[in-house]
Amino acid sequence: ALAPAGFRAAAPHWLAPRLDGSWDAEAFRVREAPGAF
Q: Are 25 and 3 in contact (CB under 8 A)?
């Protein structure tokens, strides 16, 4: 899994709305891609 800092650095800016303004990689993994990481 990506650390929050690494995720923030790697994710394109358009992803922010998907995360409701949060850059929490763990929340993203749970909400958006439970099997991808």
A: yes
d(CA 19, CA 22) in angstroms, rounded, equals 5
What value, to the nearest 5°, has the Cα angle with vertex 20 and ends 37 and 1? 15
pLDDT tens per residue, range 1-33: 555 666 666 666 545 545 555 556 666 666 665
Where along the chain do its domains lie? 1-37
What is the C-alpha to C-alpha distance for residues 26 and 30, in angstroms, rounded to an integer?
6
Whole-angstrom Cα distance, residue 37 to residue 21? 21
Please give the model's pTM, rounded to 2 decimal places.
0.20
